[in-house]
């Protein structure tokens, strides 16, 4: 067994922040999951639908791996990313990092991982790897997936080689913290304001607060959009609440990030943002419950209620981000 010593295999709620936590704690940098998410400017929104999709998707964060790039930029971390079309070279990259005593992040399709009970293709899943032998790889995944887990080398190879939406080419990465790592409280305002400006000024109507409003207009059509509403609507709600989002489509994480920022920054604008995101988080959980009820009952009235809530959420989050965009410090 080749294994990196000193790993804290703490599983968190979201896969990318879980992995970032493992890589940074190994270097003595221990940040909470909300702080990792917030400094990585992870919050967003996307309403995603196309003819090739079986059912629309509501996403609450930036695209896979963008959070990692953002966090590296925010904290001045050295991010080394390796990608290749060669499975042999991709494995050699991992072996090299672990042989040097460094845990390594991997982006892959979770469908192929042996410990995953929900077999759904998702090419944007991220795990930390810290050891292997001739049969299995030792990984750290989210708390709900078991934290410290193992999967066969064959299944890992399949997961890394998978192609499809959001997939990467045998992507592996390492992070190195500089000796003069900036103080977290010095990086809060730039991270919060950059996230707010992106949310308030989306390039297309499917993103940010405009995307939430668009989803509010389209959700009432969802019973007719599905061949199997009893399957598709509860599944969409489950993805919002349980699929590594920390609940409420990542709004719980951002609410808690803003609360933690309040320990460093005395600002009425920050308190306004936190209060509004606390409201938003509760309302997102209500929306998920209404979508589930609509699928299980087949009654459109629950989707009409969800629509009203989504239009209100667009307003709440726009007002929250308008306040946060004006932070100074």
UniProtKB/TrEMBL annotation:
Alphabetical list of Pfam families matching this protein: BtrH_N, DUF4872
Domain DUF4872, residue spans: 155-324
InterPro entries xref list: BtrH_N, DUF4872
Domain Butirosin biosynthesis protein H N-terminal per the UniProt entry, residue ranges: 14-142
Protein name: BtrH N-terminal domain-containing protein
Organism (species): Streptomyces pseudovenezuelae
């Amino acid at each position: 067994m080749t294994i990196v010593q000193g790993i804290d295999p703490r599983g968190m709620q979201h896969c990318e922040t879980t992995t970032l936590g493992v890589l940074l704690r190994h270097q003595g940098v221990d940040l909470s999951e909300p702080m990792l998410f917030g400094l990585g400017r992870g919050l967003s929104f996307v309403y995603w639908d196309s003819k090739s999709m079986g059912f629309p998707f509501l996403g609450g964060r930036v695209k896979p791996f963008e959070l990692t790039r953002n966090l590296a930029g925010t904290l001045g971390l050295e991010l080394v990313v390796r990608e290749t079309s060669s499975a042999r070279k991709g494995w050699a990259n991992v072996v090299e990092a672990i042989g040097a005593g460094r845990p390594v992040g991997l982006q892959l399709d979770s469908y192929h991982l042996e410990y995953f009970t929900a077999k759904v293709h998702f090419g944007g899943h991220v795990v930390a790897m810290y050891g292997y032998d001739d049969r299995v790889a030792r990984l750290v995944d989210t708390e709900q997936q078991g934290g410290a887990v193992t999967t066969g080398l064959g299944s890992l190879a399949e997961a890394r080689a998978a192609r499809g939406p959001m997939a990467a080419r045998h992507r592996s990465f390492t992070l190195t913290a500089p000796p003069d790592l900036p103080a977290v409280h010095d990086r809060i305002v730039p991270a919060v304001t950059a996230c707010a400006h992106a949310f308030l000024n989306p390039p297309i109507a499917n993103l940010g607060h405009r995307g939430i409003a668009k989803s509010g207009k389209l959700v009432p059509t969802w019973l007719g959009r599905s061949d199997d509403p009893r399957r598709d609507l509860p599944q969409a709600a489950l993805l919002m609440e349980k699929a590594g989002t920390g609940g409420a489509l990542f709004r719980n994480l951002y609410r808690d990030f803003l609360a933690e920022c309040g320990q460093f920054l005395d600002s009425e604008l920050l308190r306004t943002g936190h209060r509004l995101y606390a409201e938003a988080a509760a309302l997102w959980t209500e929306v998920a419950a209404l979508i589930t009820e609509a699928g299980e009952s087949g009654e459109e009235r629950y989707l009409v209620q969800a629509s009203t809530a989504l239009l209100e959420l667009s307003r709440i989050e726009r007002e929250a981000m308008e306040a946060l965009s004006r932070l100074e410090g």
